[in-house]
Write a structure and sequence with these properties.
Elements lengths: L1 E3 L13 E2 L3 H4 L2 H9 E11 L2 E15 L9 E3 L4 E7 L11 E8 L9 E3 L22 E3 L5 E4 L3 E2 L5 E2 L5 E3 L2 E4 L5 E7 L6 E7 L10 E7 L11 H4 L10 H6 L3 E6 L14 H15 L2 E11 L1 H12 L6 E5 L16 E6 L5 H14 L4 E6 L5 H12 L5 E6 L13 H9 L3 H8 L4
Parallel strand pairs: 3-14, 17-18, 17-19, 19-20, 20-21, 21-23, 22-23
Antiparallel strand pairs: 1-15, 2-13, 3-4, 4-7, 5-10, 6-7, 8-9, 10-13, 11-12, 15-16, 16-18
Helix pairs in contact: 8-10
Length: 443
């Protein structure tokens, strides 16, 4: 396994503050003062259910800034809505500002220009099969947009010693990027001697992990829209990988997170996968042997193609995983009987015309084998508190298989042209209670 270096969406390094075209010549004394005191401008990104977004800019000054003197009108950002402005001691978001050299300009994630993940027309996106992607297809279904922003200090910024940095028209442009949680993953390659395949993958290692302990491992398998995008594609397209590595989840359940990036579609509706399928199982075993992984607490999760792979891997390699979180996927029901011995949490939308009937058929086979399946119908518009209650009600059944379907019409945001199939995972990985259930299972 070979380490690969990557900085997601980063912009070529240059001067710490870039002045807008012509400003260096025509700048007033106040404008020159701004450029003189700014030491750096950094974009801050965060991943949401529908992908990575640029949600803040950090402006570094040469002296500590008085937080109390800042307001949302202190800065304007081109094409963006400013929601909060405060000082901080680091390039990071904060619930409350505090005096420091960094001014954090938070931006609305709902802005059109916030999105850094874009689905492409004509790529390998969507559900496998039918007119969708086939095994071996390598046309990317999405693209990663570089994180860049330009802003102007249009109000006075005051240091903690009372020095005033006057407003001006100087345009400051980001020259660095901090990707929250995403930057905590490392990129590697795996050469599989058994299949001859090379797999690029992302790996999150718990901070300060102790080799004397054994940690759980979560494998996230992406959908077909991420094939051949970039190694970091599975980290920025949605929450399926990064949600397990966030500080809140790690505080509850320290674990490794493994997210391969496939160069081509691995499986379609013929259910005959490429050798990347077996290479994935071999990658899990290789990572287990290299790090302090608990073989009894390995988990798999995935969406669409990744959900199909999770089901297929549990059938072919029954001892590999302790539990699976299956999001909008299916597998032939006539070979699904071994799943009756597995611990599963399944989520799908009722208006997903392939995954919903597919999961219904699988869960019927599981029931026919004598395994209890706890079922529920959820509203995709539910609040965090409502989803938490929904999870508690299913967990109270103490069934080894939990099956939640979203009501028709509740997974696609108003005005969106996405499908219910793709809309499912926009919601599914925002529900921490399901992740808590998965992490408590063992083989």
């Amino acid at each position: 396994m070979e380490r690969r270096t990557f900085i997601a969406g980063s912009v070529a390094a240059g001067a710490t503050a870039v002045v807008g075209a012509g400003s260096a010549v025509a700048a007033s004394d106040d404008e020159a003062a701004i450029a003189e005191h700014v030491r750096g401008v950094t974009a801050i990104t965060k991943v949401f259910g529908d992908g990575q977004k640029l949600i803040a800019v950090a402006v570094e000054y040469d002296r500590a800034i008085d937080n109390s003197a800042l307001s949302t009108s202190t800065f304007t950002v081109t094409g963006r809505t400013v929601t909060k402005v405060y000082a901080n001691t680091a390039v990071d978001l904060a619930g409350r500002g505090r005096d420091g050299r960094y001014v954090i300009v938070e931006l609305s994630p709902d802005d059109t220009a916030a999105a850094l993940w874009e689905t492409r027309q004509g790529g390998s996106g969507g559900a496998p099969g039918g007119g969708g992607p086939k095994v071996g297809d390598s046309t990317p279904g999405g693209t990663i947009v570089p994180a860049k922003a330009s802003l102007v200090q249009q109000g006075t910024v005051t240091t903690t010693r009372g020095t005033r940095y006057a407003a001006g028209d100087t345009t400051l442009t980001t020259t660095a990027v901090v990707n929250l949680v995403v930057d905590d993953f490392e990129q590697f390659t795996f050469e599989d001697p058994a299949t001859g395949q090379t797999l690029r993958y992302n790996l999150f290692v718990p901070k300060g992990h102790d080799r004397r302990k054994r940690y759980p491992l979560v494998l996230f398998l992406h959908d077909a829209s991420v094939v051949n995008v970039a190694t970091e594609g599975p980290l920025v397209q949605g929450l399926g990988a990064v949600c397990w590595a966030g500080p809140e989840d790690q505080a509850r359940h320290e674990c490794f997170v493994l997210a391969p990036e496939y160069g081509s579609v691995v499986v379609d509706d013929t259910y005959v996968p490429s050798t990347l399928f077996d290479a994935t199982a071999n990658l899990v075993q290789a990572v287990t042997e290299k790090y302090a992984i608990d073989e009894n607490r390995r988990y798999t999760t995935g969406q669409s193609m990744g959900a199909m792979m999770s089901l297929g891997l549990n059938i072919k390699y029954p001892d590999l995983f302790a539990a699976a979180y299956v999001v909008a996927g299916q597998w032939p029901s006539d070979v699904a009987a071994p799943l009756a011995n597995k611990k599963l949490w399944i989520v799908v939308s009722q208006d997903d015309d392939k995954a919903f009937p597919g999961e219904n058929a699988i869960t019927q086979v599981i029931k026919d084998q004598g395994t209890e399946v706890a079922t529920a119908v959820w509203d995709g518009h539910s609040t965090d508190a409502q989803f938490a209650a929904d999870v508690r009600h299913l967990k109270a059944r103490k069934a080894p298989v939990n099956y939640a379907s979203f009501q028709t019409g509740t997974t696609v945001p108003a005005g969106s042209d996405t499908s219910a199939h793709m809309g499912t995972w926009r919601i599914a990985y925002t529900i921490p209670g399901i992740r808590d259930w998965i992490m408590r299972q063992s083989r």
